Amino acid sequence: AYTEDEISDTRAALNAITVFIGYPVFWALYEQQGSRWTLQAMLMNGRLNFLNWTIKPDQMQAVVPLFGLLFLFLFDMMLYPLLAKIGIRKPLQKLTLSGCLAIVAFLFAALLQMNIFGKSTIVPHGEGRINIYNGFDCEVYVRSPSLRVDHIRPLGLVNVTSTLISDADVVEIVFHFDPACTLVPSDFELNTALTVINEKVNALL
C-alpha cells in the first residue's frame, strides 16, 4: 500500500511530466529563429514606413532579450493578476497556457511559410535547390562551376537550382567580398563545399 504523500507526489510528478513532455518539440521549433525563420524573413517586407526604417531579418533576434525583460515586468504587473481572476494561479497552469500560446504562434509561422512559398518548395527530380544567405552587411561575390549566381547583396538571400548527376552531388563554392567591406580582410576568401541532395532544398548560411 502507498501512503497519501506518495500518491500525492506521484500525481504531481505525472502532471509535471505531462507539461514538460512537449518541451523538446518546443525548443526544436524555437531554435528555428536562427535559421529557417531568418530565411523566411528574407522573403518578407520588413519596411516600417511610419518609422522610416526597415527591419533586417536577423535584427529581431537581438531584441529578444529586451522583450524578455519587458514582458517579465508586464506579466508580473498586469497579466498574472488578470489570470488569477479566472483561476489560473498555479505554475503548471501558467506553463500549460503558455504552451498553448506557443502552439498558436508556431502554427501562424507555418501558415505564413505556406503562404510565402506555396508549392514552390517542390523540387523536380534530378535537381536540388540551394538557399544561400549572406549574413554580412556588404556585397559577396560567388564563384562556382555548378551554380548560376555571381553575387549576393548585403544581408540578402539567393535561391539557386542545381542540376544533379547523382542523388547527392558535392558543389564547390568560393565566396569573396567587396573590397570596400571592412568586416573582413581585403583578400579574404571563403572556400566551402555543400552536398546538394536530389529533390531537396538545401540551406547555406
UniProtKB/TrEMBL annotation:
GO biological process: peptide transport
Any single Gene Ontology cellular-component annotation: membrane
Main location: membrane
Record-given protein name: Peptide transporter family 1
Classification via InterPro entries: MFS_trans_sf (IPR036259), POT_fam (IPR000109)
Similarity comment: family membership: Belongs to the major facilitator superfamily. Proton-dependent oligopeptide transporter (POT/PTR) (TC 2.A.17) family.
Transmembrane segments: 12-30, 62-83, 95-114
Origin species: Sipha flava (yellow sugarcane aphid)
UniProt entry keywords in alphabetical sequence: Membrane, Peptide transport, Protein transport, Transmembrane, Transmembrane helix, Transport
MF GO annotations: transmembrane transporter activity
Localization per record: Membrane
PANTHER family: OLIGOPEPTIDE TRANSPORTER-RELATED (PTHR11654)
Taxonomic superkingdom: Eukaryota
Gene: yin_2
Membrane topology, from the record: Multi-pass membrane protein
KW Transport (keyword) present: yes
